[in-house]
C-alpha cells in the first residue's frame, strides 16, 4: 500500500501551527520554523502537507532535500534548493558563481528572494537540513535574518544530535535568534492504532497493537514492521512476529536472489542518489545486466526513482542493510568505490569519503585528501580542516606529508574561526622530527591563529621560533616576518615592527612571493599610522593596493585596502575612504575571504562614526557582531562591541556597559589582550559613572598605551580632548599634559590634517583654559569632516566664553552645538547642552522629540531614512546602495524599527509610514 498518500495522523497540533505561520506569511510577515525529530518520525510527511497548504494559499514554493554527501561539497545544498526554481528564472546565480563565491551568491539570492516576496509571499523548505554543507550553513545564517521582515517562511526539518556539524550549529543559532522550534514526538497509542487500521485495512487486535507498540511510536518503523506480517498484512499471533525493524528489513531481503542482495549491498555504500552505471562499475559488471535487478528493487519498494538516479525509499532502510554487513565487507566496498571513482576521473572530494570509511586501503590517503582539500577549502575551510583531521590517523606518522597536512589544517582552522583548535593542533605536531621548512609552515599557521585571538605576545614567541627554521628568501620567511611586524605593532614596539615589516618586503621581493609582499607592505602602512605618520601610511597602503591589484588573487586576498581605508580615515579624507571600502567589498564578494568581513565592518563603522552618523555606525557594528556569531568567530567581535559602547555612551550608559561586559567576557574567556578601542571605551564609561578611583586606574592603562603608540589617538582624534577632559576631572594634570604633548607632535607631523590640528588645539585649550586655542580648534573643525568633534568644540568654547562673561556668544555657540548633536543622533549630549541653555536668560530652547522608547516618535533619524525607503518598496540592498550602507546595517535598522513599532512585516511598515507621512514627501531626513 502506498502509505505516503495516507493522511497525517497524530500531528494535528504541529500542522495547525504550521498553517498559522503560512497564513501570517501570506499577510507579509516572515518567520522561520525548525522541525526536529528522529529518522522515520514523520518530518518529511509533515513537510509534504505544509507544501500542499502553501500551494493552496497561492504562495511561491521552493523546496529541496539535503543528503549526507552534501557535507563534502561547498554550497551544493543551496544550489540544489534553488536550481530548479521557476520563480527566479534565468536571474538565479548558477554554475561557477555559486561554486566559487558564496557571499556573492548569497547576496544575489537575498536580493532575488526579497524582490519575489514583494510580488508573492514564499515558503522555502529544506528537508534533512542537518546534512547541509558548510557553505550553505553559513549562507542560511545570513539569508534567514536578512529576510525576516519579508514575506518568507523558512521551514527546516532535521534530526537531533548526535549528528553534528556546521548545519546543526546554524540551525541552533537560528533558534537562538528567534526561529520557532517544533519537536515531533512519538505517536500516541491512539494514533498508532489509527495508523495500523489505515495500513492493514482493518481494525488491529490486541496482539497486533502489542507488536505495533514496539515501534516506539515511529510511523515509518511501524509501517515497515506491519509490512513484515505474513498473510498479506493480516494480523497473526505475536509469537511468529518479526522482533525488530532491522531484522524485519533483513528478512524481507532474504527472499531476494543472492545476486540482487549483492547489488543491494553495493548500493548502500553510496549514501546519496546513485546511477546504475556507478553500481555496475563497483560490481565489475555491465550496467545492462543490472536493469532487471533495479526493476525488482523498485517494485519491492526498496528503491525509488529520482530522475535518472536511484535512492533508497528511506534512509533507515539503507542504514539497516548497510550496518547488517560485516565491517570488513563495508570497508572493502568503500575501498572499491574510491578506486572506481578515481578510475572514472571523479573529484578527489567524492573519492575521499569512501577512502576514509575504508580505513585507507591500498590508495594513498594523504595524496587524495590533499587534492580534496585543495578543491573544497577555498569555499569551505571548516570542511577542509575536518577532512584533514579525520585522515591523520590513517597516515603513517613517519611520512612528511602528514605534518604538511597538519600545517594546512592549522591554517584552515584559523580561516574557519576555530583558532583554539588550530593552536592545539599546531602545538601537538610541533617537533617530532619535522623538516625545518614544514615546522616553519606549522608555526606560521600557529602565529596566524594566535594573531586572530589577540595573543600578540605569543605571536612574537612563535615567529621568533619559526624564523630560524624558515629558508632564507622563502615564502614562509616572508610571511613570518610580516606576522612578526603585525605582532610587534600590536604591542607598541613600533621601531622593531618597522624593521620587521621592511625586512618582510625585502625577503618577499627576493623570493618573488606576492602575497607576503602585499602583507609586508600593509604592515609598513600600519606601523606608519601607529607612529603618527599619516602620509607615509597612505603611501605604503596605496602601494600595497597597487601590488595586490597587479598580482591578482594572491595579493587581493590580503585586503590591503583595509589599511588604506584606515589611513584615509585618519587623514579625514572620508569620501575617498568610503570609495576604497566599496572596492574592498567587491573583493570580498569575488574572493570569498570571509575572515576579512568583521574587520571591514569595523572600518565602515569607524568611518560612519567619524562622519557623525552615530546610529549608522552603531548599526554597522551590530551587523558585524552578528556576522562574527554567524561565522563562529567571537574574538573578532571585541572591537566592534567596544565601538558600539562608544556610541551608546551618547545615548544610554547602561547599554554601553552591556556591550563592554560582553566584550570583556570574550577577552577573558580566550585570555586575550584588551584592544586599544576597548580600553579607551572602558575609561569613558567609568568616567560617565563618576567613580574617580576607577577612572584613574583605567587612565593609567590608556596613557601607557599612548606612550608606546600613537594608534589610539591618530585613529580617533576625538579621543584627544576626551582624554584631557577625563584627566582634568580626576585632577590628573600631568596625564592631561601628556596627551596634549602627544597631540601637538601629531599635529606637527601632519599639518594638512585639519581635525588633528583642531584636536591638539582643543586639548591645549582645555588644559590651559585658553579661549584662543579653543576658538582655533573650532575653526579647524569647521574645515574638517567630523560634526561630533565640531559640536564638542563648540560646547567647550561656549563654556570658556561664558567664563569670560560673553554670555550671548556662549548661547549662540551652545545652540549650534545642540543642533549638531541632534543631527548626529547624540541625545545625551544634546540634552546636556539644552540644560545649559535653559538656565541662560533670554534664550528660548527649541523643544525636541521626547525620549520615548517605542512608537513612531522613538525612531532615530537614521531609522527613519531606512523605513521610508523600505515603505517605497525598495529591498535592503537597494536601500543600502541609496544610503551608502551595507545591507546588514539596513537590516539592523529595520529590526530596531520593527521592535519599536511592534510590527513584523514590511506590509505593516508601509501602512505606518503612510499614516505618519501623508501628505509629506519621502525626503530622507
Could you explain how this protein is built, in words?
The protein is mainly alpha-helical. The protein is 66% helix and 4% strand. The chain has 48 helices and 7 strands. Strands 2-3-4-1-5 form a 5-stranded parallel beta sheet, with helices on both faces. It has a two-stranded antiparallel sheet with strand order 6-7. Helix 29 (561-570) runs antiparallel to helix 30 (574-591) and helix 31 packs antiparallel against helix 32 (614-630). The protein is globular and about 105 Å long. It starts with 11 loop residues before the first helix and ends in an 8-residue tail after the last helix.
Quick structural summary:
With 925 residues, this protein is mainly alpha-helical.
Structural class: mainly alpha
Number of helices: 48
Parts with pLDDT < 50 across at least 5 consecutive residues: 90-100, 230-243, 920-925
How far from one another are the termini?
66 Å
| Spatial strand sequence of the major β-sheet | 2-3-4-1-5
- The radius of gyration over CA amounts to 32 Å
- Kindly estimate the percentage of residues that lie in beta strands according to DSSP: under 5%
Largest sheet: 5 strands, parallel
Helix content: 55-70%
**Multimeric state of these chains?**
single chain
**Mean pLDDT, nearest integer?**
85
Shape: globular
Give the total of beta strands: 7
